[in-house]
Amino acid sequence: MSTPTVKLSSGHAMPLVGFGLWKVNNDTCADQVYNAIKAGYRLFDGACDYGNEKECGEGVARAIKDGLVKRSDLFITSKLWNSFHDADKVEPICKKQLADWQLDYFDLYLIHFPIALTYVDPWENEGGKDITFGTATIQETWQAFEKLQEAGLAKSIGISNFSVQLIMDLLRYAKIKPAALQIEHHPYLQQAGLIKFAKEQGIAITAYSSFGPASFIELDVKEAQGAGPLLESNDIKKIAEKHGKTPAQILLRWSTQRDIAVIPKSNDPTRLAQNLDVGSGFELDKGDLEYIGGLDRHLRFNDPVNYGMNIPIFV
Questions:
Q1: What pathway annotation does it carry (predicted)?
Q2: Distance between CA atoms of 46 and 106, rounded to whole angstroms?
Q3: 23-62 pLDDT, tens digit each
Q4: Using one digit for the tens of pLDDT, what is the confidence trace for 64-100?
Q5: Which of 19, 95, 262, 270 is most buried, taking the most CB atoms under 10 A from its CB?
Q6: pTM
Q7: In a domain, 163, yes or no
């Protein structure tokens, strides 16, 4: 199954549907990546903070060894964690992450959050350490990112969890424009103004947490506990029945139909195939889009404040 792509400003094509690696357990991760490649996934979205990049690399290496794909068939995204924003720390941690993945380059490398924390040796255990803010500016970090792209360690570079104001500032000094912006995006948090601005600047959008509160209930995020599950919404179910699709497919197609990439995950072979089949093949009509558009509650789940950290970056 061929997945539609979106053209990045760097000139590279990114699949519209990928496999997200957040909260994928270490003991099953390699197999999940391998099976997702076997099912047809080519975009994999990881991060230093997820703690499973070594296992992700094992799954990719096995798939390449078994002839399922070539490296050039895959689009691998990873992210810089907050502890490595200092200019002299960016390249070393990127190279460590590449080694964990058993790769020579990332297709896309993102600044995970616009938060600089003090450096912590990646070979140390970070458990129990207090959060201490660092002094690195976004400009310092971005200029180090530009060097990664120039050196071929990342084919494209981008940002995640940035506001319009921060993007405006970054664009003033960036020699290389961010190719992509990854944000929390679902019917309860639509961020229409941010998406419109980014697209006007030629920055592609990737949505995470497309199913809204589903990923955050088990994390005891209060806002997720009080929100109605999108996958169980009767109105979403009605739209799904009309199109002969699942509620999950409707929520994912709502994004991809507007050229917003999605990165769901599943360990179920049936759902793996269903999630991948949302890049094209069916269209939501104007009424469907207007209804889903009316669900916006400006309800954000992935906020440091929700985890008890006094880092109100989204205020």
A1: Carbohydrate metabolism; D-xylose degradation
A2: 10
A3: 999 999 999 999 999 999 999 999 999 999 999 999 999 9
A4: 999 999 999 999 999 999 999 999 999 999 999 999 9
A5: 262
A6: 0.96
A7: yes
Strand, coil or helix: what is 182?
strand
Question: Using CA atoms in the order 172, 182, 159, 149, what is the torsion angle rounded to 10 degrees?
Answer: -110
Contacts for 238 with CB less than 8 Å, ≥ 6 apart: none
- Phi first, then psi: what are they for 209, rounded to 5°? 60, 45
310 located within any domain: no
The parent domain of residue 221 ranges over 5-300
CA-closest candidate to residue 77, choices 59, 58, 92, 94: 94
State the first-to-last Cα distance of the chain, in angstroms, to the nearest integer. 41
Catalytically annotated residue among 50, 109, 188, 208:
50
Between strands 5-7 and 13-15, the pairing is antiparallel
Q: What is the pLDDT of residue 202?
A: 98
Q: 107 near 75, Cβ under 8 Å?
A: yes
Q: Is 119 annotated in the active site?
A: no
Is residue 112 part of an annotated ligand binding site?
Answer: yes
Contact 254, 240 (CB under 8 A): no
Residue 309 lies in a domain: no
Task: Answer for the pair 59, 102: CB distance below 8 angstroms, yes or no.
Answer: no
Cβ atoms of residues 161 and 313 within 8 Å: yes
The CATH code of the domain that includes 70 is 3.20.20.100
Scan for tokens 């500016």, then name that residue: 137
| Phi, psi (deg, nearest 5) at residue 53 | -70, -35
Look at residue 28 and tell me if it is in a domain. yes
Q: Amino acid letter at 170?
A: L
Spatial contact of 275 and 298, defined as CB atoms under 8 Å apart: no
11: CB partners within 8 A, 6+ apart: none
The residue with greater pLDDT, 226 or 208, is: 208
Number of domains in the chain: 1
CB 222 within 8 A of CB 310: no
